[in-house]
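Consortium newsletter contribution from the modelling node. Members have asked for a concrete example of what our holo predictions look like. Here is one, prepared for the tetrahydrodeoxyuridine complex that several groups have been discussing at recent meetings.
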Amino acid sequence: MEYGKLMEVAREAKKMAYVPYSNFRVGAALLTKNEKVFTGCNVEIASLGATNCAERTAIFKAVSEGETEYKAIAITGDSDSTFPCGICRQVIVEFGDDIDIIVDGKDGLVITNISELLPHSFTGKDLKELK
Ligand code: THU
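And here is the predicted structure:
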């Protein structure tokens, strides 16, 4: 799927955001390598640490349905160019260092890559390299 279309799906998913505390809406659309799309929105909980970001909602939905290979994730939030938070970057890199990240900028889509957003990441590979 073309990234513009993927972003349109993310914008639709944003409408489902459950945000009674921040009122800051985020939507995500995750594209798998076999061209399936999983959507996510942020879900806020009164005990705020239990809140789940839109990106993680989409990824956890995909993993729970057996899909763990991703091409890209499109993200749109209430700010101009809402980039994934640090926790979501760590979750994204868990599934590959080549995943494209597309955010909704005021002048169009901004396309980057998880390796650029989280360089020198700690991954499962480190855990297999005990000295
Ligand atoms: N949020 C996301 O859903 N994704 C991000 O990458 C940034 C932050 C959500 C979490 C919370 O519901 C709201 O935005 C404000 O932090």
